[in-house]
Amino acid sequence: QVQLVQSGGGLVQAGGSLRLSCAASGGTFSTYTMGWFRQAPGKEREYVAAITWGGTTSSTDSVKGRFTISRDNAKNTVYLQMNSLKPEDTAVYYCAARRTTRTVWGPGLVDYWGQGTQVTVSS
User: Under a CB-based contact definition with an 8 Å cutoff, are residues 14 and 66 in contact?
Assistant: First the structure.
């Protein structure tokens, strides 16, 4: 059983930056592609970005050039650096793990979820 514990998030003004972290335990980190999803009020949970063990990344078009996903395999931790934040980025962000080499997947294919963390961007 993999456990994902998130940290980071909070309230920031538009144009600001935040970094989310997600520490994994209880499994073999190297077998999982790690990702981030988000869910805004009244909307479905959506894919944001993902990264394989080897460092291959992918992200949704709306965050390209602004968000960067990375992982520290020695620390079993994945990060989401969010820059140039916009009010439309406001959502609960979830860390996710899936035993796959693919970097794009829907929320229904996630094996494990983090607890979620609120990110609020004010205009």
Answer: no
What pLDDT tens digit does each residue of the chain (123 aa) get? 899 999 999 999 999 999 999 999 998 888 899 999 999 999 999 999 999 999 999 999 999 999 999 999 999 999 999 999 999 999 999 999 999 888 888 899 999 999 999 999 999
In this structure, how many other beta carbons lie within 10 angstroms of the beta carbon of residue 18?
Answer: 21
Q: Nearest to residue 83, comparing CAs of 66, 60, 70, 62?
A: 66
CA atoms 49, 51, 64, 82: torsion sign: positive
Q: Are residues 76 and 29 in contact, defined by beta-carbon separation less than 8 angstroms?
A: yes
What contacts 2, CB < 8 A, 6 or more positions away?
Answer: 24, 25, 26, 27, 32, 97, 111, 112
Whole-angstrom distance, CA of residue 47 vs CA of residue 28 = 23
Structural contact between residues 1 and 111, judged by C-beta atoms closer than 8 angstroms: no
The Cα–Cα gap between 32 and 64 comes to 22
